[in-house]
Specification:
Layout lengths: L4 H15 L2 H12 L2 E2 L4 E2 L4 H16 L5 H9 L8 H9 L2
Antiparallel strand pairs: 1-2
């Protein structure tokens, strides 16, 4: 499913939100942070809201037991640094 991000997004979103599947949360993080190319446009940077949503999904994956998420957490937040709860990034997303 590497190149089928639309399908992966759809099923990961359902599996994360409806069934609390840790790997699906991690897939959502990967989808939101992966550079996307179309015929005439390359999107490789994300805005603050999308970044906060991606970090929410990443930390939620770890909280639900997906141990592979720790590598990405270390890359994003720094190895050995305190890691906030996933809801911290959800609250940042909701703040005006």
């Amino acid at each position: 499913m590497t190149y089928r991000f639309v399908d992966l997004y759809y099923y990961s979103l359902i599996m994360a939100n409806k069934y609390q599947c840790p790997e699906a949360y991690f897939n959502m993080y990967l989808i939101l942070t992966h550079p996307v190319s179309t015929e005439d446009l390359r999107l490789n940077s994300i805005d603050n809201n999308t970044k906060n949503l991606a970090l929410y999904y990443l930390l939620k994956a770890k909280e639900l037991g997906y141990t592979h998420a720790q590598f990405s957490i270390d890359d994003q937040l720094g190895k050995g640094k305190p890691v906030p709860n996933s809801s911290f990034f959800l609250k940042k997303l909701m703040a005006p």
